[in-house]
Design a protein that fits this description.
By secondary structure, the chain is mostly helical. About 60% of the residues lie in helices and about 5% in strands. It contains seven helices and three strands. It has helices at about 1-55, 60-90, 100-115, 120-140, 150-155, 190-200, 225-240; strands spanning about 180, 185-190, 220. It has a three-stranded antiparallel β-sheet with strand order 2-1-3. Strand 1 (about 180) and strand 2 form a beta hairpin. Helix 1 runs parallel beside helix 4. The longest helix is centred in the N-terminal third of the chain and has 53 residues, at about 1-55. The N and C termini lie far apart (about 110 Å). Pathway: Protein modification; protein sumoylation.
Length: about 250
């Protein structure tokens, strides 16, 4: 009887943990939609900033940059919250004591901020905004505090974690159905990665070299933010691939 009771309790705990994980994944997905909307707004602000700079409205550009940085802070907070919720969902285990979920999420938020997981992306988004404004009148010239070689290194950086699908070898910008792991954030072609996961029978380690994460089919999906980031990367690639036109000013000597 005791064994039966223990088994029932274990099954109930397992179901509770599974429900919590599902709920956390749903919240994270919804949060990704908000992040996508913020990214769209930042793209619009960048376009407005470029337009204002072309009109030499410097003061308005400065004010817009301040607003952009505030929106960027909201974006970072939202990204940290999403990571915290996902972490709590993965770690949650039922206990006899009442769970303080607010404290759990606050603790995970603090850990995320200490690890500065979103800092590189935030810095890159701010730099892209400033670079777009700078290039209106100073295209090809390094921004204040930069060296000439920094232009190529920073202007071609993407917020995507990997540039090609590790299985198909296709560039991420050319994938038919791109999907991303919620755990390691690597991107793959959907049909290829799903077949890979199926073939590994639950031991599908991420195929990206040195990535230790195990892939789970229902946690590899096309989040709302993915297409926006791919479009941004595609746009950056087009800008950097423009050929340099060199005119020949030498005069024909008769």
């Amino acid at each position: 009887m005791a064994e039966t009771s223990g088994a029932m309790a274990s099954t109930s705990d397992s179901r509770s943990a599974s429900r919590m994980k599902t709920a956390a994944s749903t919240l994270c997905y919804d949060n990704q939609t908000l992040l996508a909307d913020i990214r769209k707004a930042m793209g619009t602000m960048k376009e407005i900033g470029v337009s204002l700079e072309r009109q030499n409205k410097s003061q308005m550009v400065k004010e817009l940059e301040t607003e952009f940085m505030e929106l960027l802070k909201a974006y970072e907070d939202c990204a940290n919250l999403s990571a915290a919720i996902d972490s709590v969902g993965n770690k949650y285990r039922p206990s006899e004591q009442r769970t303080d979920f607010k404290k759990l999420i606050d603790d995970e938020m603090a850990k995320t901020k200490r690890r500065s997981l979103s800092t590189p992306q935030i810095s890159q988004l701010l730099r892209q905004f400033k670079e777009a404004i700078w290039n209106v009148h100073n295209s090809g010239q390094p921004m204040p505090g930069e060296e000439q070689e920094d232009i190529v290194m920073t202007s071609t950086q993407s917020t995507l974690l990997n540039n090609t699908c590790p299985l198909s070898g296709k560039p991420v910008t050319e994938l038919t159905e791109p999907v991303r792991s919620m755990d390691c954030k690597h991107i793959y072609e959907k049909s290829v990665i799903m077949q890979y996961i199926k073939s590994k029978h639950g031991q599908s380690k991420c195929p990206v070299a040195a990535c230790p994460k195990i892939l789970i089919a229902d946690r590899v999906l096309c989040d709302p933010l993915l297409h926006i980031e791919i479009d941004e990367s595609r746009s950056m690639n087009k800008q950097t691939s423009k050929p340099n036109i060199i005119e020949d000013f030498t005069e024909d000597s008769d």
